[in-house]
C-alpha cells in the first residue's frame, strides 16, 4: 500500500507543518523534508525491518504509533520528534464550544432574524473583545 505521503495535498500540509515546527531552522527543515522522509518512504534502515513493517500492518488495538516512532525512528531524529509530538496531541472541541457560546449570546429569540454577515460580524467583535480583555488582564 502506498503511503499517504505520495499524495500532493498531504505532502504540502506536511511541509507546512515542518516549516512551522522547525520555524527559522532551514537546515532541520531541509533535513526532514529531503532526507528523513525519504528514508521513511523507501522503508530504509529500521523502517524496512520485518518487525517494524509487520507491527504496522497488523490490526492490533494495542498498537501505539508514538511508541512505534520512538522505537523505529532512531535514524530520523527530527522526523521522530515531529511525529511523536503530533501523535501526542489530544483532540478537543473546546474552541468550537467557545465559538458556539458567542453565537448563543448573540443569536437569541429576539435576534433570530439577523443577516448572516451581520451575525458573523457581531460574533467576531464579541469574541475578539473577550480575547482583548483576557490579554489585558495578563
Automatic annotation (TrEMBL):
Name this protein carries in UniProt: HAT C-terminal dimerisation domain-containing protein
Pfam families: Dimer_Tnp_hAT
Domain HAT C-terminal dimerisation: 58-128
Example of a GO MF term: protein dimerization activity
Amino acid at each position: 500500500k502506498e503511503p499517504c505521503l505520495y499524495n500532493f495535498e498531504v505532502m504540502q500540509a506536511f511541509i507546512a507543518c515542518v516549516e512551522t515546527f522547525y520555524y527559522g531552522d532551514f537546515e532541520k527543515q531541509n533535513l526532514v523534508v529531503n532526507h528523513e522522509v525519504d528514508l521513511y518512504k523507501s522503508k530504509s534502515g529500521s523502517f524496512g525491518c520485518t518487525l517494524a513493517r509487520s507491527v504496522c500492518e497488523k490490526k492490533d488495538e494495542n498498537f501505539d504509533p508514538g511508541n512505534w516512532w520512538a522505537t523505529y525512528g532512531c535514524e530520523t531524529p527530527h522526523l521522530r520528534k515531529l511525529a511523536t509530538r503530533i501523535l501526542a496531541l489530544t483532540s478537543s472541541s473546546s474552541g468550537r464550544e467557545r465559538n458556539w457560546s458567542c453565537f448563543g449570546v448573540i443569536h437569541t429569540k429576539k435576534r433570530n432574524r439577523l443577516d448572516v454577515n451581520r451575525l458573523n460580524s457581531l460574533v467576531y467583535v464579541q469574541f475578539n473583545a473577550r480575547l482583548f480583555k483576557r490579554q489585558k488582564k495578563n
